[in-house]
Amino acid sequence: MRRQASLGLSADGATASEAAANLTELIQTRLANGVQLVTLTVRTAQPQTGRRCSQMTVQDGLGLPELQEAIAENRRLDKNKPLSN
To answer: What's the whole-model pTM score?
Structure first.
């Protein structure tokens, strides 16, 4: 049995709702012609970026005010740094 990664469909519409309705119609046509859709669950080994960032600030003992000050300081340093050619 052959597995295809994508139906290769796209649809346009005057609004997002119309485009979604047009895409739904295209998919329903494919399903009526024997195409099967399968839902896959993919697990990743790495945590999400947002979670990693929040863990870093907790581990480093930085709260939001300290983090904001560190960002502001880096911006001040960059602003005063001469541009290299």
So the answer is: 0.43
Instruction: Round to whole Å and give the CA distance between 34 and 2.
Output: 13
Give the separation between CA 75 and CA 69, rounded to whole angstroms: 10
pLDDT digits (tens, 9 = 90+) for 49-58: 555 555 555 5
Q: What percent of the chain has pLDDT over 70?
A: 68
Domain ranges of the chain: 11-42, 49-80
DSSP the chain: ----S--------SSHHHHHHHHHHHHHHHHHTT----------SSPPHHHHHHHHHHHTT--HHHHHHHHHHHHHHHHHSPPP-
User: Taking CA 6 as the corner, what is the angle to CA 48 and CA 47, rounded to the nearest 5 degrees?
Assistant: 10
